[in-house]
Amino acid sequence: MYHYFDSKEKMLFLIQFRTFNSLLNNLKEKLHGVEGPIEQLRVMVRAHVDYFAANMEALKVCSHELDSLSREAYEQTLAIRREYYRITRNIVDRILDERTPEDALDHHVATMSLFGMLNWLYRWYDPREDRSPAGLARQITALFLGGIQGVSTAPDDAGPGRERKA
To answer: If we measure between CA atoms, which residue out of 68, 54, 69 comes closest to residue 22?
Structure first.
């Protein structure tokens, strides 16, 4: 396969760039016209799970090889990843602002926890043997919403990153 590419890094870059770009464009398309942060969260999680259920190997590459890219290639994929994070963070911000006491949860931590659930699917999820991607997306959404809504207060930790924005 390497004879089709200038280098292993070029191949890794193209996999990551195309994967992140497809994921971002798909999310924007699916969110078009969707009102309300809860429904947007459902759409986001479903789009993410659907995409990676169909592209599990790409998820594995994106999760493990990101740091293998040189600075320029890394920066190009980082811009796409930041936009995807920004869209998701905006959804999470709106949910938290509506449903939890002020400053009860760190919005960055909540967003990254959601991504943690989503981006480790390749380690255990098999769409041929486990529940459907739609069923999995519903359960992940329910777990996330139940977790953030079940918190009365978070520990008072004003340590580094408390007010971190992406």
So the answer is: 54
- Could you read off the pLDDT of 44-92 as tens digits, one per residue? 999 999 998 998 888 888 777 777 788 888 898 889 999 999 999 999 9
Range of the domain at 20: 2-149
Q: Which position has the token pair 């090889």?
A: 65
Give me the amino acid identity at 153.
T
On whether residue 161 sits in a domain, the answer given is no
Residue type, 17: F
Distance (Å, whole) CA 166 – CA 160: 14
Rounded CA-CA distance 104/42 in Å is: 22
Report how far residue 125's alpha carbon sits from residue 136's, in angstroms, rounded to the nearest whole number: 9
Encoding tokens for residue 163? 């007010």
Kindly state whether residue 7 falls inside one of the protein's structural domains. yes
